[in-house]
Amino acid sequence: MPRSLSAVAVLLMLTLGACGFQPVYGTRSAGGTSSSVTVDLAAIKISPIANRGGQLLRNSLQDKLTPRGVPARARYRLDVSLTENRSDLVILKDSTSTFSKVRFVADFTLVDLTNGQPVNSGQVETTTTFNRVDSDFAILAAEKDARRRAADEISEDIRLRLGLYFNRIRGS
């Protein structure tokens, strides 16, 4: 049984290699030089984003794109505009709400600083929810957590889209 299991694992690895699978964030050799999407992501300067939700989003983007700190010589600039709204979903007969949602919509543009031209852009949105209870402190904590989760989801989606963009231009 263990021998057949290892044979299946080897077969799967060979199949992945044959289909052209390449890790997006890994390093690969291209014409004798190594290129990596993570190097491109680390060369992005993230512009300030307005409001508290924007601050959460910018911090999350910095953690995901440039974990070693702000690049000394940025090649790209990421401009993001964020729209945030909160709405109550479940309204009881006494006009109180027991459930709310937080919606973030972010428009982003990646600008090449060598020529000042936008090279990639898009829109990302997410919705998170939280319960409203009798405690004001609990409501504030739950809403704060919902906003943080929304910012993390938006930043992860932007990171994936930028990673795919860099992978596409590196592959051509």
What can you see in these coordinates?
- This protein has 172 residues and is α+β, with helices and mostly antiparallel strands.
- Helices cover 42% and strands 34% of the residues.
- It contains 4 helices and 6 strands, in the order αββαβαβββα.
- The strands form 2 sheets. A 4-stranded mixed sheet has the order 3-4-5-6. It has a two-stranded antiparallel ribbon with strand order 1-2.
- A hairpin with a 2-residue loop joins strand 1 and strand 2.
- Helix 3 packs across helix 4.
- The longest helix has 36 residues.
- The chain is flat.
- About 5% of the residues have low confidence.
Could you outline the blueprint of secondary structure elements for this entry?
Layout: H1 2-18, E1 27-30, E2 33-36, H2 37-41, E3 44-46, H3 51-65, E4 76-91, E5 97-112, E6 117-131, H4 136-171
Parallel strand pairs: 3-4
Antiparallel strand pairs: 1-2, 4-5, 5-6
Helix pairs in contact: 3-4
Order of adjacent strands in the largest pleated sheet = 3-4-5-6
Shape: flat
Residue share in β-strands: 25-35%
Number of DSSP-assigned strands: 6
- Number of distinct helices: 4
- The computed structural class is alpha+beta
Instruction: Calculate the terminal CA-CA distance, rounded to whole Å.
Output: 43 Å
What attributes does this structure have?
172 residues; alpha+beta; 4-stranded mixed β-sheet; two-stranded antiparallel sheet; 6 strands
Condensed summary:
The protein is an alpha+beta fold. The protein has helices spanning 2-18, 37-41, 51-65, 136-171; strands at residues 27-30, 33-36, 44-46, 76-91, 97-112, 117-131. It is built from 4 helices and 6 strands.
